[in-house]
């Protein structure tokens, strides 16, 4: 089914509704499409940290920013599979591997394809975020069994140049096209708190919702202000704005998993509860989110239990399905 187009003005009208009215509307949409209310637990591992040539103003892994994050080599396969097993044992059903590249070279892409096969063999859904992909690279990852590819738009097209100068907005859209054409599911969202206006937040949601089809997963990040990055001194956004963005994402992309991602810790438990009410039904889970902190697995479980939110069922290892 084709996702209907949404204009910026239509999304802005949603976001600017009275807060409780917006949350109620989003919750009704959420219950209609996800009646069980399960929350997906996803885990994210940085398999290659630091040294990225991009200049994204929020990212501590960029070589352009003095953040003290050293460039590292790619993790060996045993370390990655051990981390995947630990995530699975803790209840995660999706395992995402991130690498700080502008675009992978062919040698590293083949290594990533092997990691995808290894992690997929455990019975986990696989996701990767490796920067820009060509059509051939996307097909290579698809052949390895990659389920999802994450490539965020970050912000609206008219604010993008204020945040990133080394990659065009169209470059991101082109990678998403390659991923979709290869048969890989798209994970694509953005960041709240990059100095954007509310109208520009609406522009981001409109862009995402108008992709054909809409992303299968939509991560919503709350900016983590890392010292040394250009956005380190950006004024924090009112946390209720994050709830409004979650709600708008749920209404405009009713069948997508909306993930409460980076910066979740800074929101506090009360705001997180409102985000779940407004339609968030996935979280990055555990004690590492690339190079920024995330509440540990036990605390995450405890919060979901206190909110009476069920956890999405875990996949079984492949040998158990044979």
Write a compact overview of the structure shown.
The chain has 322 residues and is of the alpha/beta class.
Structural class: alpha/beta
Q: State the fourth-level CATH superfamily.
A: Aldolase class I
Strand order of the largest sheet: 5-4-3-2-1-9-8-7-6
CATH architecture: Alpha-Beta Barrel
Distance between the termini: 32 Å
Which shape, going by the Cα principal axes? globular
Largest sheet: 9 strands, parallel
**Structural domains: how many:** 1
Please, what is the average pLDDT? 89
Kindly provide the name of the CATH class: Alpha Beta
Strand content is 5-15%
By CATH, the topology is: TIM Barrel
Poorly predicted spans: 315-322
Number of helices: 12
Identify the notable features of this structure and list them briefly.
322 residues, alpha/beta, TIM Barrel, nine-stranded parallel sheet, 12 helices
Task: Provide an overview of this structure.
The protein has 322 residues and is an alpha/beta fold. The chain has a single domain, classed as Alpha-Beta Barrel (TIM Barrel). It is built from 12 helices and 9 strands. It has a 9-stranded parallel β-sheet. Strand 7, helix 9 and strand 8 form a beta-alpha-beta unit. It is globular. The relative contact order is 0.18. The model is unreliable at 315-322 (pLDDT under 50).
